[in-house]
Amino acid sequence: MSFDTLQKQRRSIYSLGKNVSQTPEEIFNIVKGAVRETPTAFNSQSVRAIVLTGAAHDRLWDIVLAKLKAVSKSAESFEKTTDKINQSFKAGFGTVLLFTDTPVVKGLEENFPLYADNFYDWSEQGLGIADYAIWVALAEAGIGASTQHYNPLIDEDVQNEFNIPSTWRLRAEMPFGSIEAPAGQKDYMPDEDRFQLITSTK
């Protein structure tokens, strides 16, 4: 399958199920392979990934719901939020948690002061590339996913629940599973508003 085809196949899937053909170990290896080959500034390899399945996956989304309930403005809005969490995320087979290992970034700032102001931004770029690489790799395997950001609301509880090092900063949550309904149509803004080809200077 061509990369262009895989890019088009990768979509935000909000109707997930547990009917995947792969084992947790096989999915774990997909995630590992994608992150291992992801480029990072100075080859810092600052991205960390944890794959949750089974009861651990369910527990994550219970944590999310508990934290959201505490900040919800009304019972009606929380009911809608609960439906969304349960149907779009918890219903899936698992979740990938993506982190930045902050001492790695700090070490680069100290060791390369000329570029110190850039390393945080570059670590975010590395995280984003890893997120996308995992997403495309899962799509190739026929697994649906989406990227969510309930951090930093859930950071402390997630750290305590799963015994995660305090120096790992949670940056994204990726629920995944079988595709129970396809993504909707994707709209594109006009190319001329986004892209330019420049072949000479003034």
From TrEMBL:
Gene3D superfamilies to which the protein is assigned, alphabetical: NADH Oxidase
Record InterPro entries: Frm2/Hbn1, Nitroreductase, Nitroreductase-like
Occurrences of domain Nitroreductase (ranges): 8-177
Protein name (record): Nitroreductase domain-containing protein
